[in-house]
Specification:
This protein is α+β, with helices and mostly antiparallel strands. Helix content is 23%, strand content 37%. The radius of gyration is 19 Å and the shape is globular.
Length: 313
């Protein structure tokens, strides 16, 4: 199959966004969405886009290797290099490399990362060793693009345009309710209060052809029964299903981050939906580069040790 080509207006977004939403399927048929920094990594001739991750975050890599279909939602323009109004959803199949390539990290990832996030912190006595797992043990995840869908604005309002494989003609079928029930398993009202304070909220689900999608939503209100979500007309999948929810914010050079991540159950009626969160996790990183890098190094070290104990990376 020939590589998928995309126009300049899409390439500007892929080249310029500091962050994107990564959505990938779960074994239960739902989707998880998290934030990644693609730092402009793409190859138009090969029809691929790339992001990197640390081997310390092995659970994400294991799930992607199990089911390589994923999506990258280029949904936010702050602190990047593009001022486009397009919402760009890239769907494709991932190829995961588990062996860090030092030359690739130094000659490709390093310059691209510094373009977005400034010079890397170095120091032979401490920082080079402390950030070993975060920097030197990073691996690329290359996505062979199958389809790119764009909307004319960042709310996904208006008619979408499709490049590559056609979108499924029918919406995904409703899913069977989980055995433990569909209602919230964490405090929905508390989760909604936290999400309302965060500017970017993405909802992820699996489409009829098995590829995940991630779309922007707004938190309308909440009750003990769930979180009420709003979205542009026609973008929410009808019926009931497992879905992921991410609220996140970031500052220049990713110094200062906040994320609230959920998996749960979604029931949709038109352009409104009720989301029952089943799990939650989150963090708020300080707007201090030294402290942030210290925390990143610690998380990567812990994750890599955990993956090695489990027989993974």
């Amino acid at each position: 199959m020939a590589p998928l080509a995309w126009p300049d207006e899409v390439d500007e977004v892929l080249a310029g966004d500091l962050t994107a939403g990564l959505a990938y399927p779960t074994p239960a048929g739902g989707a998880v969405v998290t934030a990644v920094a693609p730092i402009g990594l793409r190859d138009r001739e090969a029809g691929t886009v790339t992001f990197t991750t640390s081997l310390g975050f092995g659970k994400k890599l294991e799930r992607i290797k199990r089911d390589p279909r994923l999506a990258l939602a280029y949904h936010a323009r702050e602190h990047g290099f593009s001022d486009s109004s397009l919402y760009v959803l890239v769907q494709g199949d991932a190829e995961v490399t588990l062996d860090p390539d030092r030359d690739y990290l130094e000659t490709v990832i390093g310059p691209q990362s510094e373009r977005f996030m400034g010079p890397r912190k170095r120091g032979r006595l401490f920082w080079d060793r402390w950030l070993q797992e975060y920097y030197a043990d990073r691996v690329p995840v290359t996505v062979r693009v199958a389809r790119i869908t764009t909307w004319p604005d960042l709310r996904c309002a208006g008619e979408p345009s499709v490049i590559g494989a056609p979108r499924p003609e029918a919406p995904p079928e409703p899913q069977t309710a989980p055995k433990k029930g569909t209602g919230p398993r964490v405090d929905a009202e508390r989760a909604a209060r936290r999400l309302r304070k965060i500017p970017h909220v993405l909802l992820a689900y699996v489409e009829a052809d098995g590829y995940p999608a991630a779309i922007p939503v707004e938190v309308a209100d909440a009750s003990p029964e769930g979180i009420s979500l709003r979205a542009a007309n026609g973008v929410l999948p009808p019926g009931a299903r497992r879905a992921g929810l991410l609220g996140h914010d970031y500052e220049p050079k990713l110094i200062g981050l906040e994320a609230r991540q959920h998996t749960g159950w979604l029931e949709t009626d038109g352009d409104r939906a009720l989301y029952a969160p089943h799990t939650e996790q989150g963090f708020k990183a300080p707007a201090n580069k030294t402290l942030l890098l210290f925390i990143n190094g610690l998380m990567a070290k812990r994750g890599l040790r955990k993956a090695r104990r489990a027989g993974g990376a």
